[in-house]
């Protein structure tokens, strides 16, 4: 069998499964014939094919109960939870969702082997459960049960589409792995981390934090004219934090600093930074991007955003704050002593660095 696998350039387990699945056993022997194997393959490929959940009521009840079964107290009494009506689409953020057991299809598929170890009829793959939910021609499960999935999506999103969204501007040359090593140990000031904090109505404030001194700068991102009204097809983002608005705000803020404090900027892979190449041309500030779903690679910025939420809570309208108010909040954070700076303030740490640079320059000239 292994020799056959080597000659066909296949795994030995693939050959073994093919023999077990398609060998001729009618005469009591275990003979493999290509014609018989092809007949078996054609028979299994016939469509339409009855879905396993439609043909097995016990399996269907098990899957439905683990997906949409009621939440119960430890004593067994049912708790109904919020009254949420099925609308045919996802509820959206900050909305009540249906309470249920809400097992994932993967959890259901693997738990069946534990609950029914000797019953091969109680087997189903997680993909078959997803298809029963999203492809109604597969039948068996009600569409409303998609509300019990973690995402709550009423429509399935292809994986390729989610992976490609908003990342076409990120190339290998600008990933965080290419960032200078001096940025990692925080020994040299001038390496920044940036992000947006979002509020009600897609309002936003930009944040820039220097890795070494923790010095913070806030970017004023007012909404553009026409925000709140009907949006033109393929028109610019009117909420104030589109790529061009963020590029201009960062450029205006960073150019107020000396050149030695413009070494790098690290951002997540949000579409608001798709103009990073133009930003580098204008300011000389190279931009690097974190890996997907890796906020810890901007840990200083994430921590600062948490501090800023004391002044700009989630769910509030951030457009009501003026540029002067943002500057005041930034000055407040920069005058707050930090344990990591030996109880100096970020403003004092940055000022000390600038003085040392000036003294070094005078000494060199002398």
If you had to describe this structure to a student in words, what would you say it looks like?
A five-stranded mixed β-sheet has the order 5-4-3-6-7, with helices on both faces. Residues 362-366 have low confidence and may be disordered. The chain is elongated, with a radius of gyration of 30 Å. It has helices spanning 2-8, 12-22, 34-44, 52-55, 57-68, 105-115, 126-134, 159-164, 243-254, 276-283, 299-308, 323-334, 346-365, and strands at 71-72, 78-79, 191-198, 204-210, 216-220, 264-267, 287-289. 36% of the residues lie in helices and 8% in strands. The protein is of the alpha/beta class. β6, α10 and β7 form a beta-alpha-beta unit. α9 (243-254) packs parallel to α10. The chain folds into three domains: 2-44, no CATH class; 52-156, no CATH class; 173-224 and 237-365, Ribonuclease H-like superfamily/Ribonuclease H (Nucleotidyltransferase, domain 5, 2-Layer Sandwich).
